[in-house]
């Protein structure tokens, strides 16, 4: 016969194991299919707004057709064209929203990179022009130096120099 303390330890061990399985959640007791994630409120708001816009544009199409049939073609045809174009754009926004967002991000980053490139190129050209002027002869310091021509070679550099001159002249 077993000792009573051994039985108590065994029962206590079983209770602790059962509580551990229940509290931590065993894979046997959980659902196998993943839960459905509800759409975010921002997406729902955008879809509702686009739906309202599309509804208004459909009313515009119907109104323009009605205007054309009642003799007001000068108002009806432009309204019909603008309503159809607007409806097409909102449909494209709804169906291709991710693609539009990705392309906008890529375009924005590319534009920022190009603007930074132009600023650095202009700065480099200006510094080269100043250095060639400083390295020139002291006697011909005020004469037109042909080496300075490359200091304002590009259009972007000329625009940047013009903006800086306008700021300096405007503030003094």
Automatic annotation (TrEMBL):
TM annotation in the entry: 9-30, 50-69, 76-94, 100-118
Keywords: Membrane, Transmembrane, Transmembrane helix
The protein's name in its UniProt record: Lipoprotein
Species assigned in the record: marine sediment metagenome
